[in-house]
Amino acid sequence: MSKVIRIQEDAEAIALSYGSSVSEGIRTMEKLLKKANKKDFDLEDIRNVIRDELESMNRY
């Protein structure tokens, strides 16, 4: 299924820098964003665990 939509010219250029077509570029950007969000979430969990462990070690 295809659909005609209007996008800004700079958005088209950005999407085409990620893929050979606008659709492919958008899909690639979505995958990268999901990967980045997942990675950030995991890093924050690790920071929290380390912080908790350091605080508990300081009590001794």
What would your notes on this structure say?
The protein has 60 residues and is mainly α. The protein has one domain (9-58). The protein has two helices and no strands. The protein has helices at residues 9-18, 22-58. Helix 1 packs across helix 2. The longest helix is centred in the middle third of the chain and has 37 residues, at 22-58. The chain is rod-shaped. The mean pLDDT is 86.
Key structural traits:
about 0% strand, 2 helices, mainly alpha, rod-shaped, about 60 residues, single chain
Task: Detail the topology: elements first, then pairings.
Blueprint: H1 9-18, H2 22-58
Helix pairs in contact: 1-2
Oligomer: single chain
Apparent shape: rod-shaped
Our count of helices gives 2
Low-confidence stretches: none
The count of domains is 1
Write a brief structural summary.
By secondary structure, this protein is mainly α.
